[in-house]
Amino acid sequence: MEVQASTSASAPAPTPAPLVVNAEYYKEIERARRYLRALISSKNCAPMMLRLAFHDAGTYDALTKTGGPNGSIRNPQELNHSANRGLETAVDLCEKVKRKHPCITYADLYQLAGVVAVEVTGGPTIHFVPGRQIRPSRKFTLLLLNFVAGADHLRSVFNRMGLEDKDIVALSGGHTLGGAHKQVSGFDGKWTEEPWKFDNSYFKELLKSSTKFPTPSNPPTGYSQQKPSSSAAGEDSTGRRLFIFSTDQALIKDPKFLEYVMLYEQDEEAFFRDYAASHKKLSELGFVPPTWTSRVITAVKNSSTMAKTAAGVAFATTAIAITFYYRQRSQRKEE
C-alpha cells in the first residue's frame, strides 16, 4: 500500500521574489559546497543529508506537476510527518549553512547537501544546476514506499514522480550509505559492510541475499531479516546485522530490475554513471533551469580558469626573472 499524507496550511505563504541566478549566486553555491564538505565530513552525516534531499524531492507528482525539491520539508507539518522522523537534525545542520550563505534558497541548499553527501563518501560527481525556487504550497503529498511491497508498488511510486526502471535501481543503490535505526524507523540494521562508503556493495549484497536472507512464510514487519549463523551470512565485523527490505528483494525478483542489479554489481563505473544521472533527475523534478543558467556557470568556471592561468603565467614570469637575475649576478662575479 502506498503511504500518502496530505496537510493543509492555515494560510498560504507569500510568493517569494523571483530568484536571480547570476555569477555571484553561483559563486555562493560553490562556497556553500565547500562548507558542506567540511560539515558533512566532521559530523559524519552523509546518509542523513542524502535522505533529506531525497525526501524533499520525493513529494513530486508528475501528473499534477506539484511538489518536488522546493525546500518545503523544513515546514513543521511536513517535517513532523512520521516518514521524515530523524530529519530534524539534517534540517538543523543545513541551517548553519543557510546562516553563512543566506542568499541560497532552501530548495537549492537541500539538494546541494545531497550531492555533496555522495561525493564526500567516494561516490560520483553529480552535475548541480542552481536556481530552484521555494514554492509556497497549501498541502504536500508524500509518495512513500511500503517496504513489504514488491516490484509493482516500487514502479507505482517512482513512476508517479516520472522515474523509470533504471532510475529505481540506480537510486536504490543509495542504500549503500547508512542504515535503519530503531528510534527513527523501528528497524535496526544496515545494507552493507561499510555504510559510510559510496560504492556498488549494495548490489553485491543483494545478489548474495537469496542465501543470506531466506524469505520466511510470515516476514517480520517491514523487512525480511533472519539471524545469520555466521558473519559471512549476514553480519558485519562488529556483529551488527545486515538486512534488506522486501522492496530491496523486489529488485532481484523482477527480471527487468535484476538486469540493472547484475550490471551494477559487476561494473561500478556503470553504476556511478547511471546513479549520477538519476540523482540529477530526481533533484530537478519539476525544476526547469533558466536557459541562461548554464551560461553563468560556464562564465564563472572560465573566469576561474583564466585567473588560475594568469596566476600561473605571473608565477612563471617571476621565476624566469629571478633566474635571469641570479645568472647575471653570477656572471659579474666571475668577471
Task: Report what the structure shows.
The protein is an all-alpha fold and 335 residues long. It has a domain at 151-281: Peroxidase, domain 2, CATH 1.10.420.10. It has helices at 23-43, 46-57, 76-79, 88-100, 106-120, 151-160, 165-172, 182-185, 201-212, 246-253, 255-266, 268-283, 293-334; strands at residues 179-180, 189-190, 223-224, 244-245. The strands form 2 sheets. The protein has a two-stranded antiparallel sheet with strand order 1-2. Strands 3-4 form a two-stranded antiparallel ribbon. Helix 1 packs across helix 4, helix 2 (46-57) packs across helix 5 and helix 7 (165-172) packs across helix 12 (268-283). The termini are far apart.
The biggest beta sheet reads: 2 strands, antiparallel
CATH architecture of the domain at 151-281: Orthogonal Bundle
User: Could you tell me how far the N terminus lies from the C terminus, measured between alpha carbons in angstroms?
Assistant: 94 Å
Query: What is the tally of helical segments?
Result: 13
A few lines on this structure:
With 335 residues, this protein is an all-alpha fold. 53% of the residues lie in helices and 2% in strands.
Summarize the topology.
Elements (H helix, E strand, L loop, with lengths): L22 H21 L2 H12 L18 H4 L8 H13 L5 H15 L30 H10 L4 H8 L6 E2 L1 H4 L3 E2 L10 H12 L10 E2 L19 E2 H8 L1 H12 L1 H16 L9 H42 L1
